[in-house]
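Q: Make up one entry.
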Amino acid sequence: MKIINWLKNIIFPEKNIPEENYEECPPILFRVGVIEFADNTDSESGLRLAKMIGQYDDLQVFYFDEPFGKNFLTLESRTIFDLIDKGQDILDRTQTDVIIWGYREGDKIRLNFQTSKQYEYEDKSFVTLLDSLYIPAITEQNSIIFPPALLNIIHGAIISAISPNNTENKIYRRYLLKKIIHELTNDTSAKNLPTEFTPYIMNFLGIIFLSYAYDEDKGTNFKTIYNILNTALKHQDKISNPIHLGCIYYHIGQLYDSATLYTSKNPSNYYKGAIEYYRRAQKYLSKYNYPYDYGYISYKLAILFFNYWKQKEDIQALRDAVFQLREAEKIYTYAVFPNFWAEIQGKLGQMLALLGSFSNSAEISELAINAYKNRQKVISEKRYPLNWGRIQEYIAEIHYHLGQRGGGDSHFEEAMEYFHDALYMYENAQLTDEIKKVKHSINKCRQYIHNK
């Protein structure tokens, strides 16, 4: 399998990776836990992998061999929640950035990568828990066929899975990804791996490059990443589990989605591409079998439809955005994901307010008010006074427009109540522009009431 040669000669030309002084980067360590693999042999593959990736000076690696059942590592829908919950427990207890699960299938080991923010809206990683990287089983006898290039891909998968929690980590993570790509272009050691590994390796190569290129304000890497992921699709006959195919479609959707943010040429084509591939992914990652992945894609689709509406003023796109948020809302509930649920409620409030205004529907506008009030269950007055005040202003504006559309003076009176709550918060924060704006809105409410 001449993957690395192909990358070097076609996908990653040397001229695109300028030389850098790597030693000048800050000494940041990302904490990685290798969980004892579900392996029916005595090969100690997990421990061996932990030692192998421990050579990287940007990783602090530990081996977690606490005994517990690992039947959930089959990735079957009936046990996926057990996997997520156990992983989250380990992540919380060990304060780890990434944990690696290993599951033996014949003479191969399947690796999966989990982080604490994997199913939160603020996650900045393209790696999902279902993304699987197959590697040869690691034993003393076959260590020779475990090439350095494959170890670099595992390293890249780990770094790609991390969701940076500050600007310094974000910069350092991108530097590491660039370094990994640079090393892969000069390493042909994976050329003898069987083709059965190809779709999984290409999927992760696509993730690594997408993770590196995401923050660029130009689309020069789009074709590069698409070619990598499309090569994974061309080898789908080697994929045994359809969820792995769903992950590839998901990442192509992410690629198009990312392109909508920095590409001004033919943006509607990128919107349509992202929507198409996200929907394809949902056919394999369905709401009943893999609800967290389905719901997360629904959330991303909602944002896409909303942004497409802003571009084209297509009211159906706005309706589609609301529908997708409702789908995400069913899965990311207040009880389990309060912050994500609150984010969804805020977006619902915004979109329903617009939809109610354009369709002249008081009922939809009331739904928008209810969504904003739901958001305040998390964004409370005591904990987040300024953000709570902004929501009060949004609710006030909906009441004001309902009054304008003939809803009666009660809506102007309600609007004034909410505007005054916002005003109080803005005055405490000494926000001059916001104070001026809200006072003007209050005066308009008074004029409507006094003129009747």
About this structure: The mean pLDDT is 90. The longest strand covers residues 98-105. The first helix runs from residue 3 to 11.
